[in-house]
Amino acid sequence: QVQLVESGGGLVQAGGSLRLSCAPSGQIFNIPIMGWYRQAPGKQREFVAGITKGGTTNYKDSVKGRFTISRDNAKRTLSLEMNSLKLEDTAVYYCNAEGAVTADGYARDLWGQGTQVTVSS
């Protein structure tokens, strides 16, 4: 079964930058919406940013102006450029493909395994 694979997490000082990437492990024919979510210790998973196939973006208020989401429709990949990172951005970040159509012809929501982002003071 196709999975999403994230990369690019790590440890960074407050004010620094990181770039997250996400790519499928197999063939996906169409992904209407892709997004990034995050989950901090002891908290619920929350929406961070999303992007449609046409390029329309949406962001959590607290990351607007600091994070930029982008996608490559041909490669079915997703990225998140994170600048001016804050301590409260520390979380496991997950890639999501909503309504992804895979080789079996079915549409399903796919999630990555998560990548840790830690912002230190």
What does this protein structure show overall?
The mean pLDDT is 96. The protein is mainly beta. It starts with a strand and ends with a strand. It has no helices and twelve strands. The chain is globular.
Could you outline the blueprint of secondary structure elements for this entry?
Blueprint: E1 4-7, E2 10-13, E3 18-24, E4 28-30, E5 33-39, E6 46-52, E7 57-59, E8 67-72, E9 77-82, E10 91-102, E11 107-111, E12 115-120
Parallel strand pairs: 2-12
Antiparallel strand pairs: 1-3, 3-9, 4-10, 5-6, 5-10, 6-7, 8-9, 10-11, 10-12
Looking at this protein, list some descriptive labels.
about 120 residues
Gap between N and C termini, in Å? 40 Å
- Tally of helical runs: 0
Count every beta strand, where a strand is a DSSP E run of 2 or more residues: 12
Q: Main β-sheet: number of strands, strand sense, barrel status?
A: 8 strands, mixed
pLDDT averaged over residues: 96
Unreliable spans: none
Radius of gyration: 14 Å
DSSP strand (E) fraction? over 45%
Estimate the helix proportion, in percent.
under 10%
Would you kindly provide a brief summary of this structure?
This protein is mainly β.
